[in-house]
Amino acid sequence: MRPDHEAPAPETVDALRNLITRSAGFVAFTGAGISTEAGIPDFRSPGGMWTRMDPITFQEFIRSEEARLEDWRRRFVMNEQFDAARPTIAHKALAMLVEEGRMPAIVTQNVDGLHQRSGTEADRVIELHGNATYGHCIDCRRRMELDEIRRHIDAEQSCPVCADCGGLVKAAVVSFGESMPQDAMAKAAAHCREAELILIVGTSLLVQPAASLPCIGRECGARLVIINRQSTQLDEFSEMVLNHSSDSVFAAVYPQLAVANQK
Asked: Which of 91, 115, 129, 136 is catalytic?
């Protein structure tokens, strides 16, 4: 077993459990690491999709039908991987904390919808980079489901347009070259400012501007706990750093979820 898959020491588990229990309010900030444990490749890491092919920028999507069709082809491949993945113990632990009223929101950099599939209400998940499991009009934001988009492309060999305003329909993610959603960033920043504790799970904290959010919380007095296999630039400022897989950590903190996950 790899060291990062081994459970933390019992005293570390107890310390984390106590920290979570006595914190009045906290927020989770999640990244690709929590999803790779569910079976979804990290597209940015060595060997990932973005190291094997150039991403299609927002500007390319706008100006080229060929680029739009290629973008959708890639999205359909990605979503087959998303569909095959299953929420992990870590996803379920965070969902449990939200359901118990301990945590008002999960802030995520992921676009796979696994937090929602783990049982977290959609309005409690703040998706900084959008969601790849459906499409939307880039002008009016009208939602369009992937099955409908795929049927249109197969039949017409063209990218669909919005039935309401005629705008282009794109996966509801933030593409390279596209502006971050200001409402999501504002909500996430507000939660981080108000949090007593921020659980940072499965992220290297390198992708900006999202990675600045825990810093905002720290400046307002929040304590940081980092659960990530590799070190991060905020390790030295954190109350606890656990270089373990998120599943091994949350399975140790909440053994009842580990048991239920095996059934």
From this structure: 129
